Amino acid sequence: LLASVVSGPRAARLILRAWRKQGRLPDFVLVEGSEAGGHLGFDRRELRERTAPSLAELVARTVEALAPFARELGRAIPVFAAGGLWTGADAARMEAAGAAGVQFATRFIATPECDASQGYKDVLLAARQQDVALVDSPVGMPGRALRTPLVRRLEERLRLTPTRCVDCLRPCPRGGAPYCIARALIRAVRGDYENGLFFCGAGVHRLEGMRSVARLMEDWTTEWRAFA
Question: DSSP assignment, residue 199?
Answer without folding.
Answer: B
